[in-house]
Structure formats: structure tokens, C-alpha cells
TrEMBL record:
It holds the Pfam family MaoC_dehydratas. It comes from the Bacteria. Residues 23-113 form the MaoC-like domain. Signal peptide: none annotated. InterPro entries: HotDog_dom_sf (IPR029069), MaoC-like_dom (IPR002539). Transmembrane segments: none annotated. One of its GO terms (molecular function) is transferase activity. This is Bifunctional enoyl-CoA hydratase/phosphate acetyltransferase.
Length: 138
């Protein structure tokens, strides 16, 4: 986490990217246990194939958690004022996910100086998997 001030931030500035190791079955099993999301589509290959997909794939909320890590690597979690995403693609086994963020607005609200961020995850092919935004008090 760095010491960032409202005055030093400019619209268009980017957060340091966060690149994760390739998604594997161990990651999915650990996330299922930690989150309590044991949906078989994420951990059971036979179930996934019966559902018409070639293999298990990552939980959407795992990608959101990685975006949360991106944000809290930039500022203290107590500075988060909003954080939302939409899932636009499936994160498959073997995908190397990179989380990025960009400042899109500076404003004041409720007596605080804040920035709005556009955030996303992409795989190693540059395909967006999760898109979202966040508001941070500076």
C-alpha cells in the first residue's frame, strides 16, 4: 500500500497491475473452501462436462476478490466507498489473470475527496473477464 493523496492523482492515472499465477484446480478448491461456494461447476470435472463445458472454471467471486486485492494494495480497505463488478467472460483453468485499474473521475462527496476507478481482469490473451468500478476516499 502506498501513501497517495487526492492532489497527486490525475484522471487517467493507473494502479500498479496485479498479475496472479495461472488458475489451477488447487486454487479453485481452496477458494471453494474459503468462500463456502462449493458449486460443482467449479470443482467437479464430470459435473462440468455434463453441464456442457469442457472443464471446471473459476468462481466469478474469485476474480472479484483479486480485484479487491488490487484495490487494497493501493489504499487501505477503510478508504473503499464502493466496489462493484459484472462478469463478462469465464476464467478458465490455465488463465493468467491480470487485474488493472484506472482513475476516471475526481470528485467530492459527503465531505470527502474521492476518486472513481475503472477496474477489470483480463486473461493472458487480453480478453476481459470481469469489469467494474470502485470509489476510493483520498
Amino acid at each position: 500500500m502506498s501513501n497517495i493523496s487526492f492532489d497527486s492523482i490525475r484522471v487517467g492515472d493507473t494502479l500498479p497491475p496485479l498479475t496472479l499465477p495461472a488458475v489451477n484446480r488447487t486454487t479453485l478448491a481452496l477458494f471453494a473452501g474459503a468462500s463456502g461456494d462449493h458449486n460443482a461447476i467449479h470443482i467437479d470435472t464430470d459435473y462440468a462436462r455434463r453441464a456442457g463445458v469442457p472443464d471446471v472454471f473459476a468462481h466469478g467471486m474469485l476474480s472479484m476478490a483479486w480485484l479487491g486485492r488490487l484495490l487494497t494494495s493501493w489504499v487501505d480497505q477503510r478508504q473503499l466507498r464502493g466496489f462493484g463488478v459484472r462478469f463478462v467472460g469465464i476464467t478458465q483453468l490455465g488463465h493468467v489473470v491480470t487485474c488493472t485499474g484506472k482513475v476516471t473521475e475526481k470528485f467530492e462527496a459527503e465531505g470527502e475527496r474521492r476518486v472513481r476507478l475503472e477496474i477489470q481482469t483480463v486473461n493472458q490473451y487480453g480478453d476481459a473477464r470481469v469489469l467494474g468500478d470502485a470509489v476510493v476516499a483520498l
